[in-house]
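pls design
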C-alpha cells in the first residue's frame, strides 16, 4: 500500500531489523523505556506475526505490527514506532489505518486492541480506540499500561 507518492508501507523483512531498532533508540526515553529494546528484539525474532515498515526514499521511518489472540478473534496492534522527524504529520495514523483495514478484512477478527502507554494513548483515542484498563508502571517505572479497544466497525 502506498500512503502517498513518497511513502510506502510494506511487510517487514529481517534486513530491516537495524533500522527498526534505530527507530526505537530515537524514541527512547521519550516514548519507550531503555529495557524495552530487548523486548522488541525478542518480538522481532519470536513473536512476529505481521509487521510492516513505512519507507521514505529507501529509508525506514516507521513500523508497526499486528498480532492475534490464540483463537484469532482479536487482532492486536503492536510495536508502533515512528522516526521523531515524521511524527505529527499523519503518517502514524496512515500506518494504523492500514493495519485496521487489514484486520477488518479478516473474517475471524471480532475485536481490535492495543496496549500502549500514557504517553501515546491520546493518539489511539483520536483514532477510534477507547480506554479499557490502566496498570501503573507496567512497562517500566514511569511507563504505565493503557489497554484500549477499537470502537469502530470490525
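designed seq:
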Amino acid at each position: 500500500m502506498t500512503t502517498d507518492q513518497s511513502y510506502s508501507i510494506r511487510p517487514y523483512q529481517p534486513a530491516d531489523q537495524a533500522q527498526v531498532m534505530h527507530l526505537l533508540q530515537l524514541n527512547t526515553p521519550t516514548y519507550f523505556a531503555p529495557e524495552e529494546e530487548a523486548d522488541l528484539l525478542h518480538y522481532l525474532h519470536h513473536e512476529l506475526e505481521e509487521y510492516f515498515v513505512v519507507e521514505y526514499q529507501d529509508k525506514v521511518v516507521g513500523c508497526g505490527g499486528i498480532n492475534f489472540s490464540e483463537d484469532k478473534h482479536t487482532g492486536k496492534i503492536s510495536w508502533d514506532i515512528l522516526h521523531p522527524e515524521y511524527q505529527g504529520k499523519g503518517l502514524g495514523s496512515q500506518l494504523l489505518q492500514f493495519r485496521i483495514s487489514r484486520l477488518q478484512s479478516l473474517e475471524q477478527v471480532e475485536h481490535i486492541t492495543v496496549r500502549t502507554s500514557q504517553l501515546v494513548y491520546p493518539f489511539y483515542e483520536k483514532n477510534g480506540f477507547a480506554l479499557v484498563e490502566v496498570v501503573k508502571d507496567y512497562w517500566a517505572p514511569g511507563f504505565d499500561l493503557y489497554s484500549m479497544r477499537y470502537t469502530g466497525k470490525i
